[in-house]
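P.,

For your records, the input lines for the assembly:
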Amino acid sequence: MGLAYRAGKVGRFLWSGWAGLSGLAVFAAVWQLGAEAYGSFVLPAPAETIQALFRLAADPDNRILVLSTSLRGIAGFSLAAVIGTMAGVVAGYHPAIMRLARPQVTLLIGVPPIAWIVLLMIWFGMGAGTVIATAAIAASPLVFVGAAEGIQTRDRGLEDMARMAGLSWLARLFQISLRQMLHAVFPALVMALGTAFKAAVMAELLANAGGIGGALANARSALDVEAALAWILLSVTALISVEYGIVQPLRAEAEAWREAAQPWGVRR
Amino acid sequence: MTLLQLNAVGHVYLGRPVLEQVTLQVNQGEMVALVGPSGCGKSTLAQIAAGLIIPRHGQVERGYARCAFVFQEPRLLPWATVEANVALGLSGLPVARSERRARVAAACDRVSLEEGDWQKFPSQLSGGMRQRTALARALVADPDFLYFDEPFTALDAALRRRMQHLVVATASDSGKGGLFITHDIHEALRICHRIAVLDRCGHGILECVAVPETPGHRSEEMIFETARRLISDHPLFAVVEEHDERRLA
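Structure tokens returned:
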């Protein structure tokens, strides 16, 4: 696991970005077709939107808005990750608790975020608390289900092996069970991060709590479609930065063995 | 000195008895093979003896300080390297980091795992190398008792023979005690000091036969002749050759 290995890994990861860029190019082409069909008032062209994005990003006040939304989204996601994982682990170990928790999860998933926003605005006011709580409530069921699934589907044979090898129950929990849970938790965390960002922007817009949501509300009232699209792109850029800057590197570190398990030809 | 004593052990799965009145004793320096047809409860008995399953009836007395278990599948941690998997066998022991490394290296050497493979993940190893890693993990803490639950069933004949020699060299011939579950009479004759035959329905040990000479010093002719004699002349050993699993009630 030397420096050359890490450099190679980062290089391969960056190189794999070409596939993502080509996918984005296809999306941009469809967008361009739409812009040409409906005109720039309804749907501005991608190039115009990107120019608007750079204009917005050049303003330090706008950068603070993006940062504030990102921090709120990350705070909500972190809360969801901690609470969802802990509850999921407990439910995964105890089928009775799982049976009790299932309806609550369905309830959390089924209630539209707008309903939570109304309640949370009453409880927390029109500030960051409402935004963070909305993001956490929207994202936590996903993490819960992922963690519970990961624990339920763990290989119990490995736990017997660890018991015979002399590991205490706490060591078995951290070294064997939680480690096995990761394969189900990381996809859930990626979903939860996207949900947390979406819920944060929506809560900002509806609760008039500033951030990207507040800026989107302003663009809506001014009927500035170009600015609205540019803000959406900025929010997606912030989400992608957090996902590929924090979550995916953690995943790559924890699941390095999976790359070794892949057959040649699939790795790159 | 008795390292393992099973007294009238019995167990029930979903209301159906799988083991009844099983009594067995394993002394220090003795590797006992437990043979019987598939589905007769050999693995359950080994897991009861090792403490992985609590028996419904009877008592288990363990006179050893530390034991290790080699399962039918290697049961390696897929996210850990060979070195880390072997080091797992030292869990719970107060071993300094430098000594830990030395003991892991010694265990890997004993099972002929080359140093170039120590940093590989299990998915990068062959079936034999994985099972050798599992054996190294069992041996690294120098346990005084070893459980083997049909550890070489999934290996080809040549590799199985090599692994059997490895067990003889590292366990049977080193004064440790052990219980070796197998349904291969030749394997039992090659590795063990005594062979216990479990009833096809798990109703006790039918017979316990001492094998002449010590493991590692028996010729192939002697092993094949003894196996032939046991199966043809000894009606109790005929059950070992049965292939039908016990039917579900």
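Two observations worth noting. Chain B has two domains: 1-65+144-249, 77-142. DSSP finds seven helices and nine strands in chain B.

Regards
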